[in-house]
Specification:
Number of domains: 1
Number of helices: 3
CATH class: Alpha Beta
Strand order of the largest sheet: 2-1-6-5-4-3
Strand content: over 45%
Largest sheet: 6 strands, mixed
CATH architecture: Roll
CATH topology: Nuclear Transport Factor 2, Chain: A
Length: 128
């Protein structure tokens, strides 16, 4: 598969992931991520799936928009490293949030489907 084909394939996968997160529905999000998935970000450090689900389920975190532009995809057999730029809006503890971030998602192929095992977010700074 060419690099462009990989980008197209993972853009579709990431768009589905985004749609699931915007739904604020744990069942939908679960379809996109592995049981061992973690989120790494500048504010919370390493956030396990269960903690992320708790804040979503309690209504402490909700997303209203989320987009990602896939810039790079490299596969290693059943592992894929996807890098891009994402923007999102929503609410955390009732306060509006807005983010512009570099994103690295690591996927594994599980039962013929790509599922995310780790999401790493880095805030964009300056004129990047």
């Amino acid at each position: 598969m060419t690099e462009d084909q990989l980008k197209e394939e993972f853009q579709i996968i990431e768009d589905a992931f985004n749609k699931a997160v915007i739904s604020n529905n744990i069942d939908e999000i679960s379809k996109c991520i592995a049981s061992e998935w973690v989120l790494v970000d500048a504010q919370g450090g390493i956030i396990p799936r269960e903690k992320f689900f708790f804040v979503v389920d309690q209504g402490l975190l909700s997303h209203t928009t989320m987009t990602k532009e896939i810039l790079r995809v490299v596969t290693y057999d059943n592992i894929a490293v996807v890098t891009g730029r994402g923007k999102n809006t929503g609410f955390f503890k009732g306060q509006p949030i807005e983010a512009d971030e570099w994103i690295t998602d690591i996927y594994k192929r599980e039962n013929g489907k790509w599922v995310c095992v780790l999401t790493h977010l880095t805030p964009v700074s300056g004129n990047a």
